[in-house]
Model the fold of this input.
Amino acid sequence: MTTSTRGAAKAPAVLVLEDGRTFRGRAYGAVGATFGEAVFSTGMTGYQETLTDPSYHRQVVVMTAPHVGNTGVNDEDPESGRIWVAGYVVRDPARVPSNWRSRRSLDEELARQGVVGISGIDTRALTRHLRERGAMRVGIFSGETLPDAAAMLDEVRRAPEMKGADLAAEVATKEAYVVPAIGEKRFTVAAIDLGIKGMTPHRMAERGVEVHVLPATATVEDVYAVDPDGVFFSNGPGDPATAEHPVAVMREVLSRKTPLFGICFGNQILGRALGFGTYKLKYGHRGINQPVQDRTTGKVEVTAHNHGFAVDAPLDKATDTPYGRVEVSHVCLNDGVVEGLQLLDQPAFSVQYHPEAAAGPHDAAYLFDRFVSLMEGQRA
Done:
């Protein structure tokens, strides 16, 4: 990715999909060129949390909401230390942000961090195209002098695909750190960082959990060196088919029957550890308004998602695995995709979505309580 922060407001820009479809607009954020997987997010708010979610690494995010940037950018809401999206696509950016916490405009923040974007295009048409053709590679090019159409398309088609991408270690912490319990400490959790968001360990800390966040490369010995009451596997980017090391670590955790909770990428890791396959969805689930049913209670939740891969597990029956029986506990009501797994013979479960509500609804907050209950049961 090449970027410059000068002249963004006036520079022409073009978005080129790998199938040759193009959209012309204006530069938004940094000026230059960037490449990634084109995906769309259906959230109408929470763009700052989306941008800083490590799960979006190497993805160019198309916002389906037409007006973006109204509340500017603050210093309290980021979910990590930087913006992770490869590029950003909006229709009508806010001309003047307005919020009492705002410190700068979204355009300024994108430019400051070197994130190339495009505005003024028909994002509804682009979203419909991605729904019909599927997520695909894309490039955004901006500046006063742009390459010719054939050269831009050639660059897009030479960019790496998301399928087969091993990205978790690129976004995870390099050094272990601790998020202390809020109030009285009740439990210790070892959290494997595959692209963790800042609010996730905070949600556990609110419940009296001291969270030791470990790198994606952490070994089983590293995990048990903190004497955990439970082990957590986070969200993250990339193809779960490449995640051999996290799968191996999770199998060791399952063998020891330590309470285990995984979300998003962690759900796919659990699926693989149990012997299920994974597959790439046509265009994935992204946004903060996805309906999921908890089949253990019948309750329907509105949930926050970002995933382009899913677990291939049977919806109609429990499956025998080397670690006991497992069943699909949650399912997407839009398309029947597996949204959660639960072991029936030991304390382990996972969900495909993001229950920490950053950004998003609070419907799934009970999952952290469920994890605490597993640790309480194991201790008893």
In short: Residues 201 and 211 are 6 Å apart (CA to CA). The chain is about 25% helix and 35% strand.
